[in-house]
Amino acid sequence: MKDDQSEPLRKIIHIDMDAFFASVEQRDNPLLRDKPVAVGGSARRGVVAAASYEARQYGVRSAMPSITAARRCPSLVFVPPRFEVYRSVSEQIRDIFNQYSDLVEPLSLDEAYLDVTQDKRTVGSAIQTAELIRASIHQQTGLTASAGVSYNKFLAKVASDQNKPNGIFVVRPQEGAQFAAGLPVRRFYGVGPKTAERMNQLEIHMGADLRAQSIVFLREHFGNSADYLYNAVRGVDHRPVRPDRIRKSVGRERTFQHDLQSENDLRDALNHVIESVWERITKNEAAGRTVTLKVKYSDFRQITRSKSFERCVNGRQHLSSVAHELLTQLLPVPLGVRLIGLTMSSLVDQSSPATAPTRVRQHTFDF
């Protein structure tokens, strides 16, 4: 366990696009600008994939059932997702990142870490680099991004959310521990609703409360997360930015406008999901050993079936065969099906081996 700052400081930027999917839709359709927009779903069924800031004012959030979102915001406009457009814009943004750093770790289509310690463009400042990146994104895509700048990944990611939308927040090395102490525990990585509830029962509400606990206490109550929590609340996180970061899984889901029940309809729908998953597998140059099928019935009951192999799934046809075999196990379905999802996990990288991250050195330019 490391609990000091003995390693050289890094200069880390976390860039997070503002309401990315919804902002792209508002950019491309002037009629949607300044209106509450939900990407995905419909007024009657489905799930919101993303919400504009106008919609968020009504409490509409991603992953919310569409019917709940429509109830909260009667004027909400639902638009179908256009993932091919989002991917294209994401590639534009990625090109901008690569101009400023060779160490870029994408987390999703709309966010990434950059290690700018090497100062590739000799800007002279990590803060100024973040501002140049945000300006380039706006100039080239018409979209806004928020940035967090700090000396480690944990603080940079939290910081990027401080001044959203279209803002920047900086946590300097001498400010890290104090900043972390002032955070609600829910904002620490890996602290979900259940863990936060358990912390609250232990009278741990803020980072300062967490910092007051011994490592023995944390290990007793939070197991494998203890060391991370102990360090993070002290502003310590030595994880490097990894440009070779591999996804743990790749999957897609499809919610239907009308419940499906016949075998032919279900297999046709599954074929579309298979194509989408295989496209992502190919794009990420990865392969996996486990295939999982998810089916959600009209009463919202959910069931999954999985199959794992000693070796990776061998091509699209093999994936299709396994997926349909898993579906066969569920036929005939007792109720109409509202959603089908397919995931490939236990992924391995199929691209050329990446070199190990180099040990960073101290630089003299201002943070």
UniProtKB/TrEMBL annotation:
It comes from Candidatus Marimicrobium litorale. Monomer. Binds 2 magnesium ions per subunit. It comes from the Bacteria. InterPro entries: DNA/RNA_pol_sf, DNA_pol_Y-fam_lit_finger_sf, DNA_pol_Y-fam_little_finger, DNA_polymerase-Y, DNApol_IV, Rev_trsase/Diguanyl_cyclase, UmuC. Coiled coil: none annotated. The keyword Lyase does not apply. It catalyses: DNA(n) + a 2'-deoxyribonucleoside 5'-triphosphate = DNA(n+1) + diphosphate. It is an enzyme of class 2 (transferase). It is found in: Cytoplasm. The keyword Kinase does not apply. SUPFAM superfamilies: DNA/RNA polymerases, Lesion bypass DNA polymerase (Y-family), little finger domain. This is DNA polymerase IV. It holds the Pfam family IMS. Belongs to the DNA polymerase type-Y family.
